[in-house]
Amino acid sequence: MVLEKAYTLELKRPEGYSLRDTGRVYSFGWMFDGELVKVELCTGSVAVMREEGDRILLEVYAERGEKCWEEEISRIQWIMGMGEDLGEYQRLARGDPLAGGVVETMPGMRMRSTSVWYASLVAVCQQNAGFKQGWGMLYRLHLLASRRLRTPHGVYLETPRPSSLSLEVLHEARLGYRAHTVHRLAQSRAHELDCSSLERLREIHGIGPYSYALVRLLACRDYSALPMDRWLRRLAAEAYKVPEQVAADEISRRFGRWRGLAALHATIGFDAEPLRRALERLRRGENRPGLVEPSPISLWKYIPPMASAPLLGSR
């Protein structure tokens, strides 16, 4: 599917904001290429952004006749976290053994939000999975079920549509038991949900507290939502010298309404390494991202739109 240029926009880059750091975190190769940040606005519509001095230049590419981007483009600054004031959080996180490394090395990074549907796919693929395994499953879903949207800046793999995610496709993507959860999401019309109707997600079998909190965090910028899994619980218990059963309470005590963002930054800061290696790094005080490859900040280098990626599938 070849997209046509539909719109251009110039934005003033907020002071201290880094489009590059925002765009490179947890991005596939078609979302970030080292310079350009590409964001799916809606069906058949992609925004392409780049920094140029104190400006952010944006171009919208869309299918001929597709107008859904006209409403979504008004949300682009919210989607990209432009102008978001994280001063309070950064003061809390500075020097923290879990989240401090990201705040210190990537202060201009903001979370890039997604649709509820895409956040749900991310959350399910992350259930009981390591970094490579979880993102490998999502990558294979894209390869098997995404439309290829072609712009002058390369191919963009569109979010898989519910109608394209049969059980056969989901099993081919090697989702394991998660295939049935994604299939139920598709049958339950989860793609129609937004942040005002997100509670309905709880009714779907296979969406537990962790997945629900992660969707709230990624799709709604609800930083109070704490996606607590075994990895974070064990790491927090070690970092804060508390029993594992109260690790979530300790994160909440330290970060309050920012606890979900702190959890996300902990994952980025320790490069989403397996628990044993993350604990070793914690004991050495190595909480800054980019010490290993691939990692959440370099995922884009290893998974281009059309190739098979050797990193995927192993933990």
Automatic annotation (TrEMBL):
GO terms (molecular function) for this protein are: catalytic activity
Q: Name one GO biological process term.
A: DNA repair
Name of this protein: HhH-GPD domain-containing protein
Q: Which organism encodes this protein?
A: Pyrodictium occultum
Species lineage, top-down?
Archaea, Thermoproteota, Thermoprotei, Desulfurococcales, Pyrodictiaceae
